[in-house]
Amino acid sequence: MSTQTKDHAELAEIFNKDEARVNWHDETLWWVRQKRDKAAHQIPEWELLRETASQIKNNVLSNLNNYLVQFEAQAKANGVTVHWAANAEEHNQIVHSLLTKHGIDRMVKSKSMLTEECHLNEYLSQHGIEVIDSDLGERIVQLADEPPSHIVLPCIHKKKEEIGELFHKHLGTPKGNADPQFLTETARQHLRETFLTRKAALTGVNFAIAETGEFVVCTNEGNADMGAHLADIHIASMGIEKIIPQRKHLSVFLRLLTRSATGQPITTYSSHFKKPRSGQEMHLILVDNQRTVQLGRKDFRNSLKCIRCAACMNTCPVYRRSGGHSYHTAIAGPIGSILAPNLDMRKFADLPFASTLCGSCSNVCPVKINIHEQLYKWRQVLVKEGYVGTTKKLGMQAMTLTLSSPGFFKTAGKVGRFVMKYAPFAVSNPLNPWYKQREMPAPPKESFGEWYQKNRNHAK
Amino acid sequence: MTVGLFIPCYVNQFYPGAAIATLQLLEKLGVNVAFPPNQTCCGQPMANSGFEHLTQGCNDLIIKDFAKYDYIVCPSGSCVLHIKEHIHSEKEPVKAASVSHKIYELVEFLTDVLKVENLNAHFPYKVGVHQSCHGQRGLKLSQMTELVEPDFSKPLQLLNMVKELEIIPLDRKDECCGFGGTFCVAEEAVSVKMGKDRIADHVSHGAEYITGADMSCLMHMEGILRRQGSKTKVVHIAEILNAEKV
Question: Which of A98, A240, A352, A403 could form a disulfide with A378 if both were Cys (CB 3.0 to 4.6 A apart)?
Fold first, then answer.
């Protein structure tokens, strides 16, 4: 791996230097996981609901081409302008050209992980366009000049005191004021002005309904609605996998989405957008950006079922203790670790290894993606494609040789126990990552195999 | 009925006590146990690191050693799950499939095959039960907190037969300890932090022993406990189930 490539283990080690902060981060997200459990346990048919959602999404993935064509035709008939973007760059260019056409240089945006994936803000800023994120958490990380660390709770890594300091610096609140209600009200006033003066608003899309051509945006703050309803031009960006066949299927996904995400029964706003109001332009950009490549990978295609609830992040014991930024990609956590290598195997070769394969992610996933199995499978792919360092490779080959040969194994075991007993410094030193914060197992005087020879020698 | 005893490589080398307890317990329950001496490893350390393609040697050895037995029993949920899910052989596909079907983790072999209802065991301590992920979520040794499904626990079913043993409650019933195979060294910082947090949950509830059906998790937690100078110890579940009043 080249030295410029970011590495989850290194970044997580830095995050772990402040243990009190790790504890706080872990407990905050564990609390969200508990809220999710409580909400799920109130629905006796929860597991059936997950299975149904999974099957609907399987159907979508198997018929994606037809649903997309159907959706496009319906949306056009409703008066929506539909654009297709093969990749991030095309997506960004489409947004830019729409703004340029209308002479707009300031845009308000509600939460969209797709635009994070496409690095839209950077692109527009390089072209002289100012973007203001209207989701409170996104606004906070934007003021801090950081990417979101979590797809539902973008600034979950920030303490309220740090947010108070940011607001003091950027929005002129009194120094030292970290009262959440006060800070929220300040953000509200600041954003109100933004909503009223921006002529263009961009939103994400949670669900797009092939049958009707409408799309649904879920927020708790109503910021997508505020932006879209006040702007002359509404641009909605969606990954092509966001399609669902019929409106009735929303009843399954809306019940699952927020219960899985935050433990709420439903988002405060589940807004349906169907056609532009009189005088407004409504644009919809359908983005591929390698999704069709993932669709072609048999072992990984069902990662496209994801509805971006983040339940897998909240439950992941590694995510909770390494922080979202350690994943150095727009979508962190377990789901991000199976999506990112599809975008760039070299850059994200470390992510499938940032897991103990405990399987909790697959159990909370509302659409039943076998996340931990895909993490395992990505490891196999990344090694075979040559994205894993040579030191690791040599070690593995030596280990394989030892463990597939009983003679070698016995000698190696004996030598190992001998070394640990008489020369413990050879293994018990800070260069051995096990020993840094853990004792080595005390070497027994004999292995089980040796004991068995002595005590059960009647056996062959 | 003859059972082939599969002892994980690191248990054979570092924790012979857990292996001896497994053997004695099965013998006590009337099982004819054989220990093929040439066994090594299930191959999981390589496979979980992305090198499953190098593990055919391990697969072949397991098939050669164990395909002949009625059952294969192993005191590790993780190794059993790995063999169950990944053992294969182009030369001997039938034998490979038979190994996958007849391999059992010790606890599930006791509850599901032997249907043990009584144990002559005595362990007068406060014990915290660590649910190893591969045993729990992989082999379904007990219900998982994420699912909306009826509760059950095979390890507890057995531990409840042990006299004077007191199970302590935990805040997080089934969170991973952070061992994760090579994860424990590749992601040292997070691995240790996860282990510390798991231990703190047991210790704060007064555990004198932490037990489980996977020695690897226990080895990781033991390493941290000993570094902390803690009085809390780890013990494989076989050693508790095999512990008689002296």
Answer: A352
- Chain B positions touching A411 (Cβ under 8 A) are none
B246 assigned to some structural domain: no
Residues B92 and B158 in one domain: no
Q: Which residues of B touch A30 (CB under 8 A)?
A: 172
Domain range A43-289, CATH architecture: 3-Layer(aba) Sandwich (3.40)
Tell whether B63 is within 8 A of chain A (Cβ): no
Host H or E run for residue A217: strand A215-219
Q: State mean pLDDT over A84-97.
A: 98
B221: nearest CA partner in chain A: A438
- Please say if the pLDDT value at position A5 is more than 90: no
Instruction: For residue B227, give its domain range.
Output: 126-241
Judge whether residue A122 has pLDDT over 50: yes
CB-count burial class (<10 Å; 0-12, 13-18, 19+) for A106: middle
Domain check: are B141 and B171 in the same one? yes
Mark yes or no for CB contact A406/B39 under 8 Å.
yes
pTM of the model: 0.94
Strands, DSSP E only, in A274-401?
A: 281-287
Cα A92 to Cα A110: distance, rounded to the nearest angstrom: 16
List the end-to-end C-alpha distance of chain B, in Å, as a whole number.
30
Tens-digit pLDDT profile for residues A177-220: 999 999 999 999 999 988 888 899 999 999 999 999 999 999 99
Q: Do the bridges between strand A269-273 and strand A215-219 make them parallel or antiparallel, or are there none, so unpaired?
A: antiparallel
Give pLDDT, residue A6: 85
Mind telling me how many Å the CA of B195 is from chain A's nearest CA?
10
Name every chain B residue with its beta carbon within 8 A of the beta carbon of A354.
187, 190
Last residue of a domain, one of B113, B134, B159: B113
Query: How many interface pairs between A and B have CB atoms less than 8 angstroms apart?
Result: 215
Identify whether residues B103 and B169 lie together within a single domain: no
Q: How far apart are CA B187 and CA A38, in angstroms?
A: 31
Q: Are B160 and B106 in a shared domain?
A: no
Confidence check: pLDDT of B38 > 90: no
**What's CA A28's distance to the chain center, in Å?**
17
Angle between helical axes of A223-230 and A180-197 (0-180°, round to 10): 20
Residue A321 neighbours by CB under 8 Å, 6+ apart:
A12, A15, A16, A22, A25, A26, B190, B193, B194, B197
Q: In this structure, is residue B119 part of a structural domain? A: no
Q: Give domain status of residue B205, yes or no.
A: yes
Domain end residue (candidates: B69, B92, B113): B113
Q: What is d(CA B142, CA B156) in angstroms, rounded to the nearest whole number? A: 9
Domain boundaries, chain A: 43-289, 391-455
